[in-house]
Amino acid sequence: MQGNVFVVGLGLIGGSIALAIKKAHPEAVIIGYDVNSHQLGLARSLKVIDEAVHSVEDGLEQADLIVLATPVMQTEALLLSMPLERLKRGAIVTDVGSTKQRIVQGARRLLDHGVAFIGGHPMAGSHKSGVAAARAHLFENAFYILTPTDSVPPQQIGRLKQWLSGTKAQFVVLTPEQHDRITGVISHFPHLIAASLVHQAREYENENALVSRLAAGGFRDITRIASSNPEMWRDIFIHNKCELLALFDRWIAEMGRLRSFVEEENSIAIYHYFLEAKQFRDGLPVRTKGAIPSFYDLYVDVPDYPGVISEVTGYLAEENISITNIRIIETREEIYGVLRLSFQSEEDRARAKACLAKHTNYATYEG
Ligand SMILES: NC(=O)c1ccc[n+]([C@@H]2O[C@H](COP(=O)([O-])OP(=O)(O)OC[C@H]3O[C@@H](n4cnc5c(N)ncnc54)[C@H](O)[C@@H]3O)[C@@H](O)[C@H]2O)c1
Ligand SMILES: O=C(O)C(=O)C[C@]1(C(=O)O)C=C[C@@H](O)C=C1
Q1: Does residue 136 share a domain with residue 55?
Q2: Is 290 inside any structural domain?
Q3: Which residue CA neighbors atom 1 of ligand 2 most closely?
Q4: Ligand 1 centroid to residue 47 C-alpha, Å
Q5: Which ligand is nearest to the CA of 12?
């Protein structure tokens, strides 16, 4: 498809959507804006966008598709303040936010003005944030929820799906209410549990410093998502307050029941609790999301001279640090090029960072 796509908010999700759109529609022009000028500059130099603009207004007029990819409170505010007279006729506006009721409510003024607003939520992501973590294939095989209202013509929904075809996601249409109820249970509340487990461990750490050193596989698995962006999750909890309050009540009651099983040493009840959880968990449909596991990336700002890559890989080889992937993002004549090294684990990445700091003065940053 030809046209201009304007992405507001160039983080993990906005960047990944921009890359997926460009992959499927190379002739489209991707224009980007982010309040954070560092993210905006990085999006441009990583070629996630073709053009950067310095305000929302500057990008609106030319856009055939506008994708709002900011934290949900910001998205709601943008929808409430967007100067509608500056929008191109026939433009589609969508978002990627993790909540839908307040966003669709905020978009009422667009819908009343005849602008096709179609709420969206790609159901894949990561605890990483920022444009350096963006990947074109992040949403491959994932569900992509759309929450169009009745006033949006079906052709516009079809056009949006075509724009987003490069995500290789599977589209599902839900009402905003259905969306917020389901994601409350399977996405939002689990984040709160992960964060609360980390808080609990931190309090015990005050009693014994061994707690974090001994925190092993199980604790790390269940708390990975506690490393997510706090601003994003603050906004989600405020937006989906009603569903979450109901979940708190059910969870507290459930914990009380479990607590009594343990107190009474009710071995049958405890066994069945774990067994039923295992059976349900094991029966969940297996969906392999496209995100490659090599998410432990290190960007190295290397000078542009022949042999620099073998120099870098040579230092890593000397210390037996395996690289799973290597890519040159950009080589600019006058300054530095960016080398992306991917590792299998966080530990390998940390070792690589230390190794390069020891042997070189190249700046490194984690993606
Ligand atoms: N991270 C995930 O796993 C995930 C998955 C699906 C959907 N989402 C949703 O996607 C949205 C973005 O999340 P993310 O993970 O990409 O976060 P992120 O922190 O990586 O990126 C958000 C970007 O928005 C920018 N921003 C904030 N306010 C802005 C404003 N007013 N104008 C322009 N830019 C602004 C920030 O500077 C940042 O670069 C959120 O609404 C989130 O709920 C996240
Ligand atoms: O994999 C992760 O780190 C995520 O938290 C991704 C996740 C999720 O809860 O599944 C987070 C929020 C989004 O709205 C969608 C996906």
Answers
A1: yes
A2: no
A3: 126
A4: 18
A5: 1
Q: Phi/psi of residue 60, each to 5°?
A: -65, -45
For residues 25 and 103, membership in a common domain is answered with yes
Query: Is the ipTM here above 0.95?
Result: yes
User: Model confidence over 132-174: pLDDT tens digits?
Assistant: 999 998 998 899 999 999 999 999 999 999 999 999 999 999 9
For residues 170, 173, 177 and 179, what is the CA-based torsion angle, rounded to 10 degrees? 0
Structure tokens at 165: 């075809």
Question: Residue 111 and residue 92: Cα distance in Å, rounded?
Answer: 11
Give the contacts of 293 (CB within 8 A, at least 6 positions apart).
Answer: 344
CA dist., res. 256 & res. 276, Å (int):
18
What is the CA 97 to chain-centroid distance, rounded? 10
C-alpha 84/C-alpha 95 separation (Å) is 16
How far from 314 is each of 86, 171, 308, 329, 363, CA to CA, in Å? Answer: 54, 45, 10, 20, 17
What atom in ligand 2 is closest to the CA of residue 127?
A: 3
Owning domain of residue 276 = 179-282
Q: Is the CB of 98 under 6 A from ligand 2?
A: yes
Among protein residues, the one whose CA lies closest to atom 22 of ligand 1: 11
Question: Alpha helices, DSSP H only, in the chain?
Answer: 12-24, 37-45, 56-60, 72-81, 101-106, 108-112, 154-163, 176-183, 189-207, 210-214, 217-223, 230-239, 241-263, 267-282, 308-318, 346-359
- For residue 223, being part of any structural domain is answered with yes
Ligand 1 in reach of 43 Cβ (< 6 A): no
Instruction: Check whether residue 65 and residue 106 sit in a common domain.
Output: yes
Nearest-5° angle of CA 116, CA 120, CA 126?
A: 155
User: Largest Cα–Cα distance of the chain, in whole Å?
Assistant: 72
**pTM given for the model:** 0.81
Q: Which atom of ligand 2 is nearest to the CA of 190?
A: 9
